[in-house]
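Comment thread on ticket #2218

A.B. wrote:
> Attaching the input chain for the structure job we discussed in standup.
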Amino acid sequence: MSEEPESDTKAGGVAAVERAIAILNAFRAGDSSLTLNELARRTKMYKSTILRLLTTLVQEHCIVRLDDGSYQLGSMLLHWGGLYQSALRLDDHVPPILRRLVQETEEGASFFTREGNHRVCLFRVDSPRSIRDHIRTGDLVPLDKGAAGRVLTAFDPTMTPPSRTPEQPYIITVGEREPDIAAIAAPVFGPQKNLRGALALSGPAARFSVELLPSMSTRLLAAAADLTRRLGGDASTFESWQAKSRPAALGETAS
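C.D. wrote:
> Ran it. Output below, let me know if you need it in another format.
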C-alpha cells in the first residue's frame, strides 16, 4: 500500500484536508464503527498518517474513538447536517436540474409533490419546441393520472408497501392525463429515504418512442440521483439500477 507524498498542498486542494475527508468518506451505510486496519484498507493510507489525522478529527468531534479501539462518526457531522437541512431551499437546487434536463432532451421538465389526492407542480421548465406539454407551476393534477403521480404513490411507503415498490426507479405513462401526451418520472429522496417529490419529463407521445426512451430514462435518472444527493438523500438506488441496466443495454446494441 502506497501513501501520497506528505506535502501540505496538492493540485487543486490541500492534501491534509483531502486525507481527512477520505477518512470520513470511508464510513458507509451500515457501519457502526471501523477499525484502524479497515480505515487503512479503505483509504489506502498508512496507519501513521491516519492516526495523525484522527487526533484532530477526534478533537473536533468529527470522529469518536470507542473503548475497543475502533472509530465511529462524531456528533459534529450531525450538527453540520442540521445546519445544511435548515439552509436547504428547493429553489436553489430544482430549477438548475430542470433546465439541464430540458437542454439535454428538449422536452418539458417538472418537479411535483403530493398534496392529498393530487400532485402539485412546484417547478416547471418548458420545452423549447412549439408542440409541447402545457403544464404550469402551481397546477394541480389527480394523483392517479400520469407518471409523476404514479411515482409519488409507488415510492411512498405510507401508500405502497416496500414489497410492491417498482424494481426500476422510474415509471412511464402514455395518454393518462391527456390524450397523446406521454411522461416519464422518477422519485427524488431526502434523508432517511423520505420521498421529496417526483422529477418528470413530458411531451407528445410520438417523441417518447422506444428508440428514445433509453436515453431519456438515463438522463432522468442521472438528474434524479443528482437532486437526491443535493437534498441529502441516498442516490444508491439510481446508481445500482444504472449499473445493472448498462450491460443489458450494451448487449442489445451489440445484437
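A.B. wrote:
> Thanks. Noting for the ticket: Residues 236-254 form the longest helix (19 residues).
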